[in-house]
Amino acid sequence: MKLRILLVDDNAEKIGLIENSISLISRDLAVQCVIDTVQDIVSAKRRLHDCDYDIAIIDIQVPRRVGQVPDKTGGLVLLQELEESDLLRKPAYILGITAYINEIPESHAGLLDRYFSLVSFSRESTSWSQQLHKAFGDIVKSLTQQRRGENSQSTEAALAIVCALGSPELRSVLDLPIDWSILDERADCIDVHEGAIESPSGRHRVVAAAALEPGMAASAALCARVIAEFRPRYLAMTGIAGGMKAATKLGDVIAADVVWDYTSGKIVQKRRRQEFLPEPRTIDLDATVKGQLRRLAETPGVLARIREEFKGPKPDHDLELIFGPMFTGSAVIANSKFAATLGDMHRKIKGVDMEAYSVACATKYCARSASAPIPIILKSVSDFADADKNDDFQSYASYTSATVLYEWAKRFL
């Protein structure tokens, strides 16, 4: 089990003693503890606004701001704000720690009774460490029972990954370092796999499935079903796409910031000629996710490592993560002249596939808008939508798109 802990204390020596004690407790209880330490109330509130914590350990006497003298009731002020504010994420368990237990005002007794397990700290004794150990033991038992109950009752997932093909696309997802298992209670034509990903905010359930055939209709049906059953926060599609030769290289991952259904339009007769008048339908994707992916792409060594760790045939150039429009249509394109006409619709087009628009569309028209997932389209270039189309780099492209999604999830899920 992994526990995320917020420690609010302004005394460096005391912080060190508490962290050492937690390290011993972690070993004894066979849990992993990740500790974020802050030294004032303002910094603690920022953390509690942005992150979920299993445990908060709060010194009673702590400054309101960095550099100020400790407030005798600073920790209690933080506790009061946790109780009253909807903007702060309340930890599952809160422990108070103080060397001045007799100085706690009577007026705060009710607040302490509701939230604190109070640890009396002393540099001259180890009894406080024993109190901390017991409190952690109780918390671990309680969280273990809660998580077992959640796993058995909840079907919700943080991330759902859909693919158009079982091989090589879904296979590359299932090759990620995730302990996948098949939901064996299902009795239908589609296997859904489940696992978990650890990120700084905790452990998150992930599900993955592939459609039985490529194309918008099959992917739209799969996405609608996944959304209804698992209520994911993010719905991602990985796999292969045709790239625009002037804008991409084989294996590059395209992060679609807008998806188009380029087949939407009207067929008319003009001077004995049949002509197609396009009316592209577009859906813009999430700006926050785009920013996170940009930061991932700019992290030194990440893309190089992803390329290096692939053991099969791969192109001779560096891997890149490219942002731009993705066009979706109902047919495989193996004609460079036709692919070139797509550039007339959008000069910055990066790639073309048969499913991306349906994924974004499924999230847009989700029956419960409050539960609508955020779509993420990451597809890698396996060919250039021309007559030279082949399968040589499909496995590499499936791998790079799946692995970039995994690296994003580890950091930002």
From TrEMBL:
Which residues belong to any copy of the Response regulatory domain? 4-129
InterPro entries, per the entry: CheY-like_superfamily, Nucleoside_phosphorylase_d, Nucleoside_phosphorylase_sf, Sig_transdc_resp-reg_receiver
Q: Which residues carry this modification: 4-aspartylphosphate?
A: 59
The reply on keyword Ribosomal protein is no
**Pfam families, per database record:** PNP_UDP_1
At the top level of its lineage, which domain of life is listed? Bacteria
Q: Which residues form a coiled coil?
A: none
Going by the UniProt record, its keywords in alphabetical order are: Phosphoprotein
Q: What is this protein called?
A: Response regulatory domain-containing protein
Q: Specify the species.
A: Paraburkholderia denitrificans
The organism that produces this protein has a lineage beginning with: Bacteria, Pseudomonadati, Pseudomonadota, Betaproteobacteria, Burkholderiales
